[in-house]
TrEMBL record:
It comes from the Eukaryota. Keywords: Coiled coil, Hydrogen ion transport, Ion transport, Membrane, Transmembrane, Transmembrane helix, Transport. Residues 94-128 form a coiled coil. The chain crosses the membrane at residues 407-431, 451-468, 548-568, 580-598, 636-658, 762-782. It is found in: Membrane. Belongs to the V-ATPase 116 kDa subunit family. GO terms for molecular function: ATPase binding; proton-transporting ATPase activity, rotational mechanism. Essential component of the vacuolar proton pump (V-ATPase), a multimeric enzyme that catalyzes the translocation of protons across the membranes. Required for assembly and activity of the V-ATPase. PANTHER family: V-TYPE PROTON ATPASE SUBUNIT A, VACUOLAR PROTON ATPASES. This is V-type proton ATPase subunit a. GO terms for biological process: vacuolar acidification. It is a multi-pass membrane protein. One of its GO terms (cellular component) is plasma membrane.
Length: 823
């Protein structure tokens, strides 16, 4: 239980195990997930490590697996989610998997290459088939046209874009160039033909219409068939060069109809053969990918495990005989028995005759910080770690943040209705967690990770909404109001009917008998305040003072938590006591004044201002005739200010002077040792860096210590003032949220509710939809995010700086479960 409130106690352990059992031992430790290996070669480059070749092989296998996964996804083949993998990764698995993956990759690449070649051939045959089918009509039309010697004009070409051109030489024997060009390139191709040959050609073209049985490609490209009739071989050569420039495909086409018919028959036969071969090739490819998809997750897990094992082995040392591996690990003290059992299990699996040895090392190095979490607490721990990983054995703020964070959020977001919607959203995320994780969306993953944070924020918002008596800007009258209007009328009160009709507003007088029952509303704010004109003034005063009280209590709780750190680091008298007394003397007393003023009965005309009382207290100004709350207020306030003033030099000078005294004493002891026992004995007192103790102590700079302590003192004293003022954001955001909710009610939904015409129901439906959208987007999303960020700031800056340093480094164990994202 202690590890929940403070980071785990860690230890540095040296491991000795045989080389043949190394894979099994590390595999067991990886499944255990409680061991962080220390790099014993910090200055060695990656390419100089022993198992770098094996790591490269694993990376190459990962590349092949990514290639296979891409092909499987492209072919719309389902990858099974469940898989079973071996717990033990042997060295020979690298060679077996590497050869299998290489063979599979080469086979798949060859299949893809053959399929692409067949598809290209099929596309060419398809284009030739369309070309032969359409050129029959072209030849008939051109032969009839050349007999009448049609001469087109340039204007007609560019205005009507006719699909045929003719030369002016009469009936001549023409050659032709036939081919296929992309549809979007044809207009430019046509225009350049005209400018080159000035109309001395005949051009025919038609768009290729795809057929379902012939569309073997994934994406159909629109193309046009064209035939250019010209005279002269030199001109045809120029046209061929132009076709090459436009990347047009040119195909041979016979002159007579019989040859074209025979060629078309041959093309159709070849297309049928290619269609059959393509079908068989695709079936074989799908079969190969389906077999690979069945083992894809298992292979991926196995390769990642082997890579992690070889990467871990690169961190270890191997003795000269190459038979013993030496490693150093960080692990929790409470899990040493589990680690030892895992090592023995791994050694037994290989039949090793030597049991692994664990040797605990005492070191001055700072261990990593390890805080155990579960599904519920991991979100709050992530919030703390985002500020900074705690120092070793430092108090962990996460357990307390689970209570204070959603509460401070709810103080700013207090509304029963909005809190209920947020709670329902969190419950929905919790119930459908697996479904949302499969969406692979960054925003959704963030919401799922913080689902329990959202749940607590919603529940606390419902609670504070009941305290504020606010639900979508409306209040509940569950217990009956403590105020009564009836007793203000004659004869018990001063009101009459004329008073009711002639007054713009009326004020209830609690001194009139029966107007105020004398018993406060049992839970929360009285619903009568919801219809009062001075509601905002009342809530302003109430929420502002409440924010100060919550802020001071929150900061005092942080100072009390620092006691655990100060006991651990032996700074109770030097830091904890002056910090606590300074905070209580000033801001604890401010909280007392607020609560005392609430508890005693004082007339509003003679009630003193808490702010002026506190300012006059700091300046010892008691000359004014301002009223006091109690009789001995003046001497008490003078005493508290003096005590707070004494705490400042105590906090500033006590620790540096004590350290200076210890430093002088250590120098004197070293001097006596050197005189009495000589320099040989001095060498026995070396520190971990191999330097003499005296030289190590002399490195302490007293000037740096005084400067650091001065900065800490100024930061703490001024921070108490600024941090208390910072908690007023609770008051500001709470009022802003309530006012926005009231504006949406009055200016949107209430307008539709007052309509009494026949279309009122339709208007109400539209208005309610608008109200719902604005409520979700503005009040839930925008206001919720704003309250979340402000609550985060209050914890990071105002609360945690009282006891939390956050300058450690996180415990990063070898864990296969985290690596493979398994649960």
């Amino acid at each position: 239980m202690d590890s929940f409130f403070r980071s785990e106690e860690m230890c540095l352990v040296q491991l000795f195990f045989q080389t043949e059992s190394a894979h099994n031992c590390i595999d067991e430790l990886g499944h255990l997930g409680l061991v962080q290996f220390k790099d014993l070669h910090p200055g060695t480059a990656d390419f100089q490590r022993r198992f770098v070749k094996e790591v490269k092989k694993c990376e190459e296998m990962e590349r092949i697996l990514r290639f296979l996964k891409k092909e499987v996804i492209t072919s719309n083949i389902l990858i099974p989610a469940d898989f079973t993998t071996e717990r033990i990764s042997l060295p020979r698995d690298v060679l077996d998997l590497e050869s299998s993956f290489d063979k599979l990759e080469q086979e798949l690449k060859e299949i893809n290459s053959n399929r692409d070649t067949l598809r290209q051939n099929f596309t060419q045959l398809t284009e030739i088939n369309h070309l032969l089918h359409m050129t029959d009509d072209f030849f008939v039309e051109v032969e009839s046209q050349m007999t009448i010697s049609e001469l087109p004009s340039e204007d007609s070409v560019y205005s009507s874009r006719r699909a045929s051109y003719a030369s002016t030489n009469g009936s001549l024997k023409l050659g032709f160039v036939a081919g296929v060009i992309k549809h979007e390139r044809f207009p430019a191709f046509e225009k350049i033909l005209w400018r080159l040959f000035h109309g001395n050609f005949v051009l025919r073209h038609a768009e290729i219409k795809p057929h379902q049985e012939e569309n073997m490609e994934e994406v159909f490209v629109k193309k046009d068939v064209f035939v250019v009739f010209v005279q002269g071989d030199q001109v045809r050569g120029k046209i061929r060069k132009l076709c090459d420039g436009f990347h047009a495909s040119m195909y041979p086409c016979p002159n007579n109809a019989a040859a074209r018919k025979e060629m078309r028959t041959n093309v159709n036969m070849r297309m049928e053969d290619l269609r059959l071969v393509l079908k068989r090739t695709e079936e074989f490819r799908v079969t190969t990918l389906t077999a690979a998809a069945a083992n894809l997750r298992e292979w991926t897990a196995k390769v990642k495990k082997m890579k992690a094992i070889y990467y871990t082995l690169n961190l270890c040392n191997i003795d000269i005989t190459q038979k013993l591996i030496i490693a150093e690990i960080w692990c929790p003290v409470s899990d040493l028995s589990s680690v030892h059992a895992a090592l023995i299990k791994g050694s037994e699996q290989t039949g090793s005759s030597v049991t692994p040895i664990m040797n605990r090392i005492h070191t001055q190095q700072t261990p990593p910080t390890f805080n155990r979490t579960n599904v519920f607490t991991s979100g709050f721990q992530n919030i703390i770690d985002a500020y900074g990983v705690g120092d070793y054995q430092e108090i962990n703020p996460a357990p307390y943040t689970m209570v204070t964070f959603p509460f401070l959020f709810a103080v700013m977001f207090g509304d029963c209705g909005h809190g209920l919607l947020m709670t329902l959203l969190a419950v929905w995320l919790i119930l459908h967690e697996e479904h949302f994780r499969k969406l692979k969306n960054e925003l959704v993953d963030m919401l799922v990770s913080g689902r329990y944070i959202i749940l607590l924020m919603g529940i606390y918002s419902i609670y504070t909404g009941l305290i504020y008596n606010d639900c979508f800007s409306k209040s509940f009258n569950l217990f009956g109001s403590s105020w009564s209007v009836r007793h203000m009328f004659h004869p018990q009160g001063p009101w009459t009917n004329e008073t009711l009709h002639n007054s713009d507003y009326l004020q209830l007088d609690p001194l009139v008998s029966g107007v105020y029952s004398g018993n406060p509303y049992p839970f929360g704010i009285d619903p009568m305040w919801n219809i009062a004109l001075n509601k905002l003034l009342f809530l302003n005063s109430y929420k502002m003072k409440m924010s100060v009280i919550i802020g001071v209590v929150h900061m005092l709780f942080g100072v009390m938590l620092s006691l655990g750190n100060y006991i651990n680091f032996k700074d109770v008298v030097l830091k904890f006591i002056p910090e606590l007394v300074f905070m209580l003397s000033l801001f604890g007393y401010l909280t007392f004044l607020i609560l005392y003023k609430w508890c005693v009965v004082i007339k509003s005309d003679s009630a003193p201002s808490i702010l002026l009382l506190f300012i006059n207290m700091m300046f010892f100004d008691y000359s004014s005739n301002g009223a006091m709350l109690y009789k001995t207020q003046k001497p008490v306030q003078i005493f508290l200010v003096v005590v707070a003033g004494v705490m400042v030099p105590w906090l500033l000078f006590a620790k540096p002077l004590l350290m200076y005294r210890e430093h002088k004493q250590s120098k004197l002891v070293n001097h006596l040792i050197r005189i009495i026992k000589g320099t040989l004995l001095q060498q026995k007192y070396q520190n971990d860096k191999g330097e003499p103790l005296e030289k190590s102590k002399e490195k302490i700079s007293m000037g740096d210590i005084f400067v650091y302590q001065g900065i800490h003192t100024i930061e703490y004293c001024l921070g108490c003032i600024s941090n208390t003022a910072s908690y007023l954001r609770l008051w500001a955001l709470s009022l802003a949220h309530a006012e926005l909710s009231e504006v949406l009610w009055k200016m949107v939904l209430q307008v539709a509710l007052r309509v009494t015409s026949g279309m009122g129901s339709v208007l109400l439906a539209v208005t309610f939809a608008t109200f719902a959208v604005l409520t979700v987007t503005i009040l839930l999303v925008m206001e919720g995010l704003s309250a979340f960020l402000h609550a985060l700031r209050l914890h990071w800056v105002e609360f945690q700086n009282k006891f939390y340093q956050g300058s450690g480094y996180k415990f990063s164990p070898l864990s296969f479960d985290k690596m493979l994202n398994m649960k």
